[in-house]
């Protein structure tokens, strides 16, 4: 049986700890701290694998506070 190739490229939905940390722009130690203090989501289990949901990471990242000074987006969305 042959497998049809897919012309579309899909980003992975489930990320390893290292990939999840890199995705949000921090090291693994900082990422672990952010999961522990609930700024980032807990992982999911797929059999024996531990993975982070990329969509949940996006949502958690969007909830992080902005830097204190006003920026371009603050002016637009205020």
TrEMBL record:
It comes from Sinorhizobium medicae. It comes from the Bacteria. This is Uncharacterized protein.
């Amino acid at each position: 049986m042959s497998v049809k190739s897919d012309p579309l490229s899909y980003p992975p939905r489930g990320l390893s700890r290292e990939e999840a940390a890199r995705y949000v722009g921090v090291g693994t130690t900082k990422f672990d701290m952010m999961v522990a203090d609930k700024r980032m989501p807990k992982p999911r289990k797929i059999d024996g694998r531990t993975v982070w949901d990329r969509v949940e990471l996006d949502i958690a990242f969007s909830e992080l506070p902005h830097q204190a000074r006003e920026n371009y987006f603050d002016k637009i969305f205020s």
